[in-house]
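Ticket #317: bound-state structure for benzoyl coenzyme A.
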Amino acid sequence: MENTVQLEEQFNAKLDKGEFIEPKDWMPEKYRKTLIRQISQHAHSEIIGMQPEGNWITRAPSLRRKAVLLAKVQDEAGHGLYLYSAAETMGISRDELLDQLHTGKAKYSSIFNYQTLTWADMGAVGWLVDGAAIINQVMLQRTSYGPYSRAMVRICKEESFHQRQGYEIMCALAAGTPEQKAMAQDALNRWWWPTLMMFGPKDSESKNSTDSIRWKIKRETNDELRQKFIDRTVAQAEHLGLVIPDPELKWNEERGHYDSGEINWEEFWNVVEGRGPCNHIRLKVRVAAHENGAWVREAANAYAAKKAKREAGSLVA
Ligand code: BYC
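RESOLUTION: The complex was predicted; output attached.
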C-alpha cells in the first residue's frame, strides 16, 4: 500500500513530465479543491454570462444579427455544461455546484455584473470580453487536469467565433454614422476597464496563483495574461478608429509592451464581493430560471427511470 508521500511524488512526477492528471488519479486534496473552485467559477460565469447578451436577442437590429447572437448565447450554455461535467469528475455533484451559485457562496466572473445598455455593447462584449476570455482559455488548454483541458479545446474554437462576431459589430458601427461611431466609442469606454479586471487581482495580491502555477493549473499569471490582452487589443482599437480610455496607455520600447494606467481595484473587489451594478439581479434571474425549470428536470428524471425499468424488464425477459 503506497503512502501519501509516495503518491505525492508520483503526482509531481506526472506534472514534471507534462502528463495530464485524470479523474481516477491520486491528487492532493488542495489541488482538487482549487480545481473545483476554478472550474465551477468558470461554469457559473458561462451561464450567468448568458444574461447580459440574452437581453439583446429580441432587440438585435436584423434577422442575421439575431440568429448569430442566439447561436452565441446557446454556445455559452454548452460551455457551462462541459465545465459542470468536468467539475463533477472531481467528486462534487451538479446540485451542490448550483446550490453554491444560487446561495451566493460561489463566485463568477465580475464582468457579468455590468449592464448592457446599447446594441454596441454586444459588439464590445464579443470583442473585448470574449477576447479576454480567449487569452485566458488558450492558456487553460494546457492546464494539468485532463477533463478541464479537453473542455477548453472545444470552448476556445467557439470563443474565437464569438470574438469575431463582436469585432464585426464594432467594425460596422465604427464605419457607420457619427451617432453609431459614438455608440461604439461609448461601449469601449464602459467595457475597457471591467474587461481588464477579468484577469483577476494583480499578481502580488493573487492568493491562489503560487499553488496554481506550481500545479500547472495556470501556466501564466494574471498580470502576464492581462498584458498580453492589452498588447493585442490596442491595434484592433486603432483599426476601428476608436480610442482606448486610458491616457497612460503608451508603447514602451524597452519592455516591448504597452504601459497602462492603474485599474480601480476598489471597484474590482466591490463587484467580486457582490456590490456591483447587477450582482443582485443576475442571481435573482438565475434562481428564478432554475426554479422555473424544475418541471423539466422532473420530467427528464421520470423518463430516465421509466426507460431504465423497461430496459431491465427486457433483459430479464
Ligand atoms: N471575477 O487568487 P486569484 C466567458 C477571485 S466566461 C470574480 O488570482 P485565481 C463568457 C478568485 O476566484 C469565461 N472573481 O484567483 C461567457 C479568488 O477568489 P476565491 C470566464 C474573481 O483563481 C458568456 C480571488 O478573487 N472565465 O468567456 O488564481 C458570455 C483571488 O484571485 C475574479 C473564467 O472563469 C474575477 N474577474 O485566478 C461571454 C476563467 N478574478 O475563489 C463570455 C477561469 C479573481 O479564492 N478562471 N477572482 O475566494 C481563472 O482563470 C482564474 O480563476 C482567474 C483568477 C484568473 C479568474
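RESOLUTION NOTES: The first strand starts at residue 250 and ends at 252.
TICKET STATUS: resolved
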